[in-house]
Amino acid sequence: MTHEEHHHDCCSHNHEEHHCHCHEHHHHEEGGLKEKIILIACTVVLLVAAVLTERNCNLATWQLLLVYLVPYLLIGFDTLKEAVEGLMHGEAFNEHFLMAIATIGALCIGFLPGADTEFPEAVFVMLFFQIGELFEGYAEGKSRESIAHLMNIRPDSANVERNGAVEVVEPEHVAVGEIIVVKPGEKVPLDGVVVEGASSLNTVALTGESVPREVAVEDEVISGCVNLTGVIRVRTTKSFGESTVSKIIELVENAGERKSKSETFISKFARIYTPVVVFAAIVLAFIPPVISGHFVDEFATWLYRALTFLIVSCPCALVISVPLSFFGGIGGASRNGILVKGANYMETLAKVGTVVFDKTGTLTHGQFAVEAVHPEACDERRLLHLAAHVEHFSTHPIAAALRDAFPDEATDGCSVSDVQEIAGHGIQAKVGDDVVCVGNGKMMERVGAKWHDCTHVGTIIHVAINGEYAGHIVINDKIKDDSSDAISRLSGMGVSRMVMLTGDSKEVGGYVAQRLGINEFYTELLPADKVRHVERLLAGKAKNTFLAFVGDGINDAPVLARADLGIAMGGLGSDAAIEAADVVLMDDKPSKIATAIRIARRTIRIARQNVWFAIGVKLLVLALAVMGFATLWMAVFADVGVTVIAVLNAMRTLRTVS
After folding, report:
1. Would residue 322 count as lying in a domain?
2. 529 part of the active site
């Protein structure tokens, strides 16, 4: 199996297989590296012994061959075996085949008339090839570890309450609506709502955030988080197959199947390039000595050059390092709580020039909150206190915002009676001895309170006490703390155009856009209107750039799919939006868009560095090989050395960035 096939195979297991065998695979991989190190050490000892034997004993050529064959077969057996298996499966032109031909040729040169023996070089070439494979195996293991780190979020079991007892079952066997118990130290097995208890949850594996999240009764919890402190009882809202943890694992595992243009090009390039190189080496070995007319005398020289040419030409560095760069980039992004569904989206991310934002739930929290309190006939606390009491029984989001702003309302002992809801106006109730009216301007006019308009943008709630105007409260959809940072970071990264699309009113949309520094915005839009705006923006975008749409709601799914790149908020976003998107931000922070673009650009930059470095060194040594100045040692560096350097460079994509 080639490195590329091995890499693909590692990415294609389903999550059940991965979960069952991950630990076993890790130990097997560690054992394989240790065995290879021992094998290399033994080969070095035997090679030194062979060199000393050659110097101190006057042996015939065939006897020397037998001496060097011991370390050669010891270190080269796996490579020769892979080469033979490749031939049997019709895949002859891989790195093992090239290395086998080159080293066997080096062993045979010593039997040609007038040629020096190249037995030590043959063993050294195979030895350094194995050292290179050792480094490659280590690097690939590190890349897989970053993905395995994410796979560890998969819960092993669930404690479900049934018939008055707690049963331990597999998460797949828990139905929607059942109550599960999550103890400290356990992973939350399914998505749900807390019905009893309070705790802190470690969400770092999902969102990249190190600060624990506090949860209490009625709070939503998502699978994959680790419960840190208290015992909580959770009513499940999704089956395991539809839960957050299952979707994340599926997204990451499938990411390896969507290859970037660079990876696809390298694969096609290697399939054409390798056989061309083999035939070129054959031509180099036979044609020059035939043309010179001194075939017998010069064949050994040209065969040596052809073998050097063959080793240098091996495309290992490109075939391994480019896919590894993208795989590492996806793993590095996942550590930051960013799920990129494929390497092809990495290339798109790196070239984003236009970002279009939905407003509600993307730049704002999508939840009403009190933004300002303007009392007139009482103090600020009393105004909030009375409004929260009057709205105590209402289920409207505005009422919830008022209650959240005054959390002591339920325990301060005040009595509320004679509650009347007046359609289109507001609510009137008796709080203690006071008649309090909470509502719009019509409500104030109804009770004869002298009210006035407010210059603030948002929902204005007026309050009257015993017919006297007491003040007003401004309620708005709260802007996320890092939305402004997201806009400034994207602007600093060269994203030339940022647009906000919203179904809200012009006043509300304009207010949010102004606060965030977005100059272009469109309001009062239906889902179909958003698609039309995105299509217009797509037509007008700069050449060689892409448009990304960022949204979270179910109504954003069509436009997420229509954009060059769809980015969904994964924490609170709808399932439809996450399915339609190409990139998912697990912590709902808009600033992670800039982080994703930075990771993508770094990944592309590292992949290109590897391509140009590998091609540059190989072309230089190839030219030297044809002219007779390159040795097998230089060839080994141009192949194995360049591959190791490229692989180590590719590992930089695994680093976490901010």
Report:
1. yes
2. no
Question: In terms of domains, do 271 and 375 share one?
Answer: no
Strands (E), 218-337: 220-221, 226-227, 232-236
The string of pLDDT tens digits covering residues 434-477 is 899 998 888 898 888 888 877 777 778 899 999 899 999 888 87
Residues paired with residue 522 on neighbouring β-strands, in sequence order: 501
What's the CA angle centered on 408, arms 404 and 411, to 5 degrees? 130
| Helix, strand, coil in percent for the chain, rounding step 5 | 55, 20, 25
Q: Is-contact 658 146, C-beta < 8 A?
A: no
Q: Which helix (H) or strand (E) holds 372?
A: strand 364-375
Examine the domain organization and report whether 71 and 200 are in the same domain.
no
Distance between the two ends of the chain, CA-based, in angstroms? 37
Residues 6+ apart with CB under 8 A from 481: none
596 dihedral zone (left: phi>0; alpha: psi -120 to 50; beta): alpha
Main-chain dihedrals φ then ψ at residue 89, nearest 5 degrees: -100, 10
Q: What is the layout of strands, in order, in the sheet containing 468-479?
A: 364-375, 468-479, 459-465, 434-439, 426-431, 416-422
- Burial (0-12, 13-18, 19+ Cβ within 10 Å), 417: exposed
* Stated pTM of the model: 0.67
Of the residues 581, 615, 638, the one at which a domain ends: 581
* All residues at 6 or more sequence positions from 62 whose CB lies less than 8 Å from its CB, including other chains: none
| Annotated catalytic residue within 78, 219, 358, 575 | 358
d(CA 10, CA 5): 9
Alpha helices in 336-436 (DSSP H): 343-350, 380-390, 397-405
